[in-house]
Design goal:
heterodimer; A: 672 residues; alpha/beta; 6-stranded mixed sheet; 12 helices; 37 strands; 24% helix; B: 291 residues; 10 helices; 10 strands
């Protein structure tokens, strides 16, 4: 049995029940005052009557108060609701509560999160409507249900609502709805889906909701404000995999999801160092914050960029792993045993401590080196070269007389030309200059301090088409391209038309040569990581173990504190160790003893940062209702109006009050 | 005499018309009760008259018979030696008046003044005791006009005082009244009847004739319907909020029990008791005295 108030907005009327009490209290304090000769007799009278007077006074007062309460309560239109099977007839009610557990639900509004509010509403609706069978489907990256099918154990669902927390994941809305619809399609009776969510605009406006007409679809919104939120949306490092000692630029994009400009401080924690920058972001704008740093040791360095805290803390921090290489690996591919140009590169690797060089006659495999220099390329293995480049190896080809312009064009995606490649020699030689002084590779040359990077005299060259010189970084003075470059997403491809051979140029003996080569090699280093350190939130943290490590010695910790349980899975790639629980944002370390063998990071899904809400009525399907609307509708369909009984009670109480208040004997007195 | 507040000329004229009643009071009643047994100095020669049959032969003056051989009786003017002490309760409660023109104290004072004049006019002695919780004034009995004026002045200057304790006052006054006589007590008797009569017992044993006049305002005899009202005690700071219609009957019962107790105790001790309303004429009290 439950009592439902049909006019809860008039609940304040019940406060008027204190009026009889106030009348009782105030009326005693303001009667007319009279001087009387002697109160002895009056006191005697009071004393004699007090034994029965006070209980009677209290009885009268109680009766009056109850009458007032009953009358006022009648104005609230209470309904007596019962789920007694003998009272309610009809089909079974099957309700699935689809509750949004995505990251945006962890936003704090007032004193609670949106998720807590959603759970409270679900619990209230469940407690009041008492469906025959119910279930909860959680909207998260991989939706889950509490029961395989709607069941009668509502108490368990209520407990689960109390225990649940918002996740840090995206919400797979369509999958969750499908799960709920599939479950309801297998039951008979009344079927209803009640979605309780913040209806985050970014997630819901394009959500595909196909609810069959036979299923009632109700939407209950939580969170009624557009919370101001500042989030770190992306975090990048350039170069993505630098060598130790190399300058690294770490940039974070910070977005302001509010209608007011925000000033905040961005902090960088990297390799034990800390930097901060204060930024101002326009309303609904974004800002790019760049930190420059370098790392003296090679290895996987964890980097965290964070913001000053705001109402939504999940997206105030972002992590990444920067693998610092000990050296950049360069392989020269040549069929000649003794090549002057290869020797130059070998000597260069000796001069540059961060560069290692080796020689090969065959093309190396994927990720075998960072820079591949093919000397006297004849157009062989074009497809393989492109594949290597796409997989993160920068490719430099030095043409040979056998090379066709078509192959060169295909390698760098250059414009077609109707010509043949020819080699020319000139005793006077040619000079070369920077074609694009603004290019990053020339950053230290732009001041002129280091001279012309292609300083020298070149006696031999290939006549590359002049129309390609728009992709050149160095041209001969007669505009024949000297070095052409095409920067692809993961690596660069270059055509080298500047001779190293001391027999054909004096470039290598020029002072700027080593500087230029160092800058060039650093600038074309691959922009791809061999390993993927970032894992998706909501998934399992996993790592394919190197063969050298024993899986039993590996322990997984999150943010160096809590140790997580893991299990071993055998895959085609080898033994994979995997966490049992879903990944939440943070840094995960795979430890063997005190050594960190591997790191992973999990970041907050940036799609959940925009806390702008959608009006659920704008969704094409379903009815929008509030918690009270649902309970009211349920009560109206099943409840019995109580007001006639209350009015009857008022009349009975007033009769009783009048009987109690009427003097019935000469000893009846009202006094204090 | 007309300059006194509590003794109006018309009252004096009316008292003169009370000749028969007054004689009855003084001679028939008071005198009869207080005949002097001290013949010597207490008797004064009045006249000789001839013996007529029926006279007491013991009254014949045999010396005159020896000289004149006639029977003459020697008559004397008899001194009654009446002492009347009037107790006037002057506590604060006696200042109460509601349905009457006179407060209980004023009413008592009028009667006391008239009674004093009447007693003095018959050459008897009258005393006055004004009391509340203490004896405020004690005037021993006297029969002169000056004494009467003193009584009238005391009554005129008298104001309602503090709390009352008739029993205590009677106990204190007992040694002050040397000779037995008549005591007239004017009070509202808001005291325990048992205590009052305990205090009166010494007077009764000494042979005093006692009259208790229970003076009440009509508003006390029948409680006025005031609805819900806060009552303040005139003799203390006590306050009591009551719904008067609800207690009216209880009040009547309480007063009835109180007067019944007083009346019963008075009857058992041959003490005269009368409940008087200030609405009635105080001359009615003389009728009571003369009965």
């Amino acid at each position: 049995m439950d009592i439902f108030l049909n006019q809860p907005t008039w609940l304040w009327l019940l406060a008027l029940a204190v009026i009889p009490l106030l009348v009782h209290l105030l009326s005693r304090s303001r009667p007319a005052e009279y001087q009387f000769s002697d109160l002895t007799f009056l006191k005697n009278i009071v004393k004699k009557s007090s034994r029965y007077r006070k209980p009677k006074d209290r009885l009268v007062l109680i009766l009056r108060t109850l009458a007032a309460l009953a009358l006022l309560f009648a104005f609230l239109h209470p309904l007596l609701v019962s789920k007694d099977p003998s009272v309610v007839v009809g089909a079974e009610d099957n309700v699935i509560y689809v509750i949004d557990q995505s990251a945006s639900m962890s936003a704090v509004e007032g004193s609670t999160t949106r998720f807590t509010e959603a759970c409270n509403k679900a619990a209230a609706i469940m407690a009041k409507t008492k469906p025959d069978n119910a279930n909860i489907v959680w909207i998260k990256s991989i939706p889950s249900a509490e029961f395989p099918a709607p069941g009668p154990n509502i108490n368990y669902l209520a407990e689960r609502l109390q225990q649940a927390d918002a996740s840090s994941e995206n919400g797979a809305i369509a999958s969750a709805m499908k799960l709920a619809i599939d479950q309801l399609s297998k039951v008979k009776g009344n079927r209803e889906i009640i979605v309780i969510s913040d209806f985050q605009k970014q997630a819901w406006e394009n959500a595909e909701l196909f609810v069959p007409e036979s299923i009632k679809f109700t939407k209950v919104a939580v969170g009624d404000t557009r919370l101001p939120n500042v989030a770190i949306e992306t975090l990048r490092a350039f170069p993505i995999s630098p060598v130790s000692g190399q300058n690294v630029s770490i940039s974070a994009r910070v977005k302001n999801y509010s209608d007011k400009a925000v000033t905040t401080t961005v902090y960088l924690n990297a390799g034990g160092g800390r930097q901060s920058k204060e930024i101002e972001i326009a309303a609904n704008g974004q800002a790019e914050v760049e930190f420059n740093t370098q790392f003296s040791h090679h290895g996987n360095i964890e980097v965290t960029v964070s913001l000053g805290e705001d109402a939504f803390r999940g997206d105030d921090e972002r992590h990444m792993i920067i693998p610092i290489k000990e050296t950049l690996r360069m392989i020269s591919v040549t069929s000649e045993e003794k090549s002057a140009t290869v020797n130059i590169l070998k000597r260069l690797a000796i001069v540059l401590p961060w560069l290692s060089h080796s020689q090969s006659e065959e093309l190396p495999g994927i990720n075998a080196c960072d820079v591949l220099f093919i000397h006297r390329w004849g157009g062989d293995h074009l497809e393989e070269l492109i594949k290597l480049s796409n997989n993160g190896t920068s490719v430099i080809v030095s043409p040979s007389p056998k090379t066709s312009l078509v192959d060169l064009r295909k390698l760098l995606d250059l414009s077609p030309v109707d010509a043949l490649l020819s080699q020319k020699k000139d005793a006077k030689g040619w000079k070369a200059v920077m074609a694009k002084e603004s290019a990053a590779v020339f950053s230290i040359f732009s001041s002129g301090e280091f001279g012309n990077p292609a300083q020298g005299n070149f006696l031999q060259r290939y006549e590359l088409p002049k129309q390609w010189n728009n992709t050149a970084i160095i041209n001969y003075t007669d505009e024949i391209p000297a070095i052409l470059i095409s920067n692809k997403s993961n690596a660069s491809r270059l055509i080298w038309n500047l001779s190293f051979d001391p027999a054909h140029s004096d470039w290598v003996s020029q002072e700027p040569f080593v500087t230029f080569m160092a800058e060039l090699i650093l600038s074309i280093q691959p922009n791809i990581q061999a390993d993927n350190y970032e894992l998706l939130v909501g998934g399992k943290v996993s790592w394919i173990l190197p063969e050298t490590l024993d899986s039993k010695s590996i322990k997984l910790t999150r943010s160096t504190k809590e140790e997580l349980e893991t299990k071993i899975k055998n895959t085609t790639q080898g033994a994979m160790i995997q966490s049992l629980v879903a990944a939440t944002p943070g840094i995960y370390e795979w430890r063997t003893g005190s050594t960190i063998a591997h790191r992973n990071v999990v970041n907050f899904p940036s799609t959940e940062s925009n806390l702008t809400l959608l009006n659920p009525s704008d969704l094409p399907t379903g009815e929008t209702a509030d918690q009270d609307d649902i309970i009211r509708a349920e009560a109206l369909s099943q409840g019995m109006p109580m007001w006639p009984w209350l009015l009857g009670a008022v009349i009975a109480l007033l009769i009783a009050e009048s009987l109690a208040a009427t003097p019935q004997s000469k000893r009846q007195i009202i006094s204090t | 005499m007309s300059s006194f507040k509590y003794l109006k000329p018309e009252d004096i004229n009316r008292l003169r018309n009370y000749e028969f009643g007054a004689k009855a009071l003084v001679e028939g009643y008071l005198s009869g009760r207080h005949r002097s047994k001290q013949r010597g100095s207490s008797t004064e020669f009045h006249e000789y008259r001839q013996y007529t049959p029926g006279d007491d032969p013991s009254m014949v003056d045999w010396r005159v018979f020896a000289r004149s051989d006639r029977h003459y009786l020697k008559t004397f003017e008899q001194e009654t030696n009446l002492e009347c002490t009037i107790f006037v309760d002057s506590s604060a409660s006696m200042g109460f008046k509601e349905k009457s023109e006179l407060s209980k104290l004023e009413y008592s004072s009028f009667f006391a003044a008239c009674l004093a004049w009447l007693v003095v006019s018959k050459n008897d002695q009258v005393g006055l005791q004004i009391f509340d919780k203490d004896i405020r004034h004690h005037l021993p009995p006297g029969s002169t006009r000056k004494h009467l004026h003193t009584i009238l002045n005391l009554l005129e200057e008298n104001q309602p005082g503090s709390q009352t304790s008739l029993a205590d006052s009677l106990k204190r006054a007992n040694p002050m009244i040397k000779r037995k006589g008549t005591i007239v007590i004017l009070s509202d008797f808001f005291d325990s009847p048992k205590d009052i009569f305990q205090a009166l017992n010494p007077y009764i044993h000494r042979g005093f004739r006692i009259h208790l006049f229970h003076v009440l305002d009509p508003g006390e005899i029948t409680l006025t319907d005031r609805g819900l009202a806060r009552f303040s005690d005139m003799e203390s700071d006590d306050q009591l909020t009551l719904h008067t219609p609800s207690i009216k009957e209880a009040w009547d019962e309480e007063l009835k029990q109180h007067t019944k107790a007083l009346r019963s105790l008075a009857a058992s001790r041959r003490v005269d008791y009368e409940l008087i309303s200030t609405k009635d004429s105080y001359f009615n009290l003389f009728d009571r005295l003369s009965h």
